[in-house]
């Protein structure tokens, strides 16, 4: 798979850019509706993609090698689906032919996410912002 093909798997939903809380005792990760301030809501892409690892040290670079260990990735994520040998959903841009289908299907975080730049004390807010997806 080329780099471009790998990148095209990302549907730009923005879910992995949401802040998360981990319960280490239960081995469970909770997503919140607070998203990294670098996410561009229109495109669903990182505004500082090339330098994101320096700007956000815990931002993980996805690879074929680490996807199987990232059990907390959203169930709808193409990388997660591919790792499990599943098909891409019909709303995925590679199937629909348009990136608009992600928002139309309600998969994008753009309708509910709040940028972390809007909070003065992010750590204190996270628990109040836990969400759950149905998929
Ligand atoms: S959750 Fe997966 S498909 Fe969605 S933005 Fe993140 S890497 Fe891309």
List the helices and strands and how they pair.
Elements: H1 3-8, E1 18-23, E2 28-35, E3 39-40, E4 45-46, H2 52-55, H3 78-83, H4 93-96, H5 100-104, E5 114-115, H6 122-125, E6 130-131
Parallel strand pairs: 2-5
Antiparallel strand pairs: 1-2, 2-6, 3-4
The protein binds iron/sulfur cluster.
**Which ligands accompany this protein?**
iron/sulfur cluster
Largest sheet: 4 strands, mixed
Ends distance: 27 Å
Extended strand count: 6
Helix content: 10-25%
Number of contiguous helices: 6
Low-confidence runs (pLDDT<50, min 5 residues)?
Answer: none
Radius of gyration: 15 Å
**How many structurally independent domains?**
1
Instruction: List the secondary-structure elements in sequence, H or E.
Output: HEEEEHHHHEHE
Global geometry: globular
Query: DSSP strand (E) fraction?
Result: 15-25%
Mean pLDDT: 94
By helix and strand content, what is the structural category? alpha+beta
Characterize the structure shown:
The longest helix is centred in the N-terminal third of the chain and has 6 residues, at 3-8. This protein has one domain (3-131). Strand 3 (39-40) and strand 4 (45-46) form a beta hairpin. The protein is of the alpha+beta class and 135 residues long. Strands 1, 2, 5 and 6 form a four-stranded mixed beta sheet that branches. The two termini are 27 Å apart. The protein has six helices and six strands; from the N terminus they run αββββααααβαβ. 21% of the residues lie in helices and 16% in strands. Iron/sulfur cluster (SF4) is lined by residues 10-16, 62, 74, 77-79.
